[in-house]
Amino acid sequence: MYTDLLNIHTANEHIPKYHVLYSVAPAVLVYNFWSRSRDHPPDWKNKDHHYTDVHGLPCIEKIVASVDETPEAISTKISGTIPEWISGNFLRNGPGKFEIGNNKFNHWFDGMALLHQFKIAGGQVTYKSRFLGSDCYTANSENSRIVVSEFGTVAMPDPCKNFFQRFLSRFELPTSDNDNVSFVTYKGNYYVSTETNFMHKVDPETLETKEKVDWSKFIAVNGATAHPHTDPDGTTYNMGNSYSAKGAIYNIIRVPPTKTTPENPEETLEGATVVCSIPSVDKARPSYYHSFAMSENYVVFIEQPIKMDLLKIVTGKLRGKGISDGVYWDPKLETIFHLINKQAGKLYSVKYHAKALSTFHQINAWEENGFLVMDLCAADDGKAINNYMVQNMRKSGEALDEVYNTMCRVFPRRFVLPLNVDMETPCGQNLNTRPDSTATATKTAKDKVFCTHEDLHDEELHKYGGLEFPQINYAKYNTKPYRYFYGCGFRHLVGDTLIKMDLQGKRMKVWEHPGLYPSEPVFIPLPGATEEDEGVIMSVVITPNKDKSTFLLVLDAKTFKELGRAEVPVNIPYGFHGTFNSTMTHRRLLSEKKLGGPSE
């Protein structure tokens, strides 16, 4: 995850006038969490900001090592049992190359996109990977140097040019199309995305790069997030910024569920529209956002105090600075939740405020009895984006501990937003009347409600460094009341445990193994399932201290016990996000409840 591209539009222009690269930290990795050290337990004294003082973190240098692609499918070694009902492609995205010639990328989010496929059928698994055929990957490879700037890396002028040509190149702002964050779907097609103007259509069977798609050719926005939301009918919502003489604007985007011209196999984003536009509170310093929340009837945009100084970003190359130089945390600001009616395209006049927090991933949101309930992963600090420099992740000993200890941990929280606030609503009293909820919502002005959160965890989660990369049974429970979510615990710079959270009693189950670093868990439902957690969890587990032993892990989502694993005989770097491309064409009998055998 990683860099974002902002195209700056002049008023009423549909085609971008400038392209400005700005950062969007990947998911979760903007925070840190707990140590494995049993000799030096974490310091819990500063709970307001969730920092710790740990010692003895193991080196994870190989997690950010460049690897070769594996374009032809290779077999894996199966231990335990991969349930035979699973049929499809588990797709993953993330950085896979951190050096071009003698040039090195500075930030983890800068690495060239490497796409991964675990093909699962009949209890067997094959693996392949391909570098995304982006323009920046091609240009970098052909020139044997970094040609296009990324989030934390400034491309240097061509040494073969004369002085005047090198000087002029400082004013060029080529855009990156290095889509290394996630796989997304629009109208049934698979794309890889970051948060720039550009996505690439990808064949989920071959991982072949098919087509580069530019959002600004369809609507006047400057990119879109790598985390869209989809309604049951297939309508997809996303968010992207635009820029004009009036300043920065946040836009809610809607993409229709089916092709506007079914006979056209090349159709991409035709029919996309801007549903609603929200002016930034600070026109020259809009908030950075990685994702947003969505209920049945509302989009919730979270305007957080992670800010982007547009002037610094635009002039960064002149000063020899990366985009990251223009991204900063302002703890003096409050967080604002904006509600947008999806059908009417209307911005709700009431603004919901909270103390300064940073959030990269939301868990779920739904409406119930006059309230919008929103669950998210959040931290009390947002300064950690720039800590994920490659050199930091390759440190060891006390230097690595120091990087980790400066970062704030992330925990799951719940906000309850009352929907029926009007002129008659009294000020100064808690409007949250939901039973057993400790979240508050207090009207403080005619158009302002101040909210405090409820923790969705107990003290046990502190032992695992908080939780990020949250996932749910999305197909059945997104925008609906739910009970379970899954994520990674963070006792290191990256996830080192898998966690299942049960909201009834805030109980948790954990999968962990020393020296293993699991990726974002993805839930795959059992066909015909009648219970929310009936299915499996998949995660790619990285083994930086053991060569060529990365594996695909399959857990029973209900018991959180290991069913099986598929060991891959090549090295794989730690990635960001993934999805499951199902090819299941049958339904198992409901009487056959067994997910698979125990692991060996």
From TrEMBL:
Requisite cofactors: Fe(2+)
Record's signal peptide: none
Residues where Fe cation binds: H227, H290, H361, H577
Cofactor binding remark: Binds 1 Fe(2+) ion per subunit.
Keywords: Iron, Metal-binding
GO MF annotation: an example: carotenoid dioxygenase activity
Pfam family, any one: RPE65
GO annotation (BP), single: retinal metabolic process
Top-rank taxon: Eukaryota
GO CC annotation terms, alphabetical: mitochondrion
Listed SUPFAM superfamilies: Quinoprotein alcohol dehydrogenase-like
Family in the record: Belongs to the carotenoid oxygenase family.
PANTHER family in the cross-refs: BETA-CAROTENE DIOXYGENASE, BETA-CAROTENE OXYGENASE 2A
Protein name: Beta-carotene oxygenase 2b
Species in which this protein is naturally found: Oncorhynchus mykiss
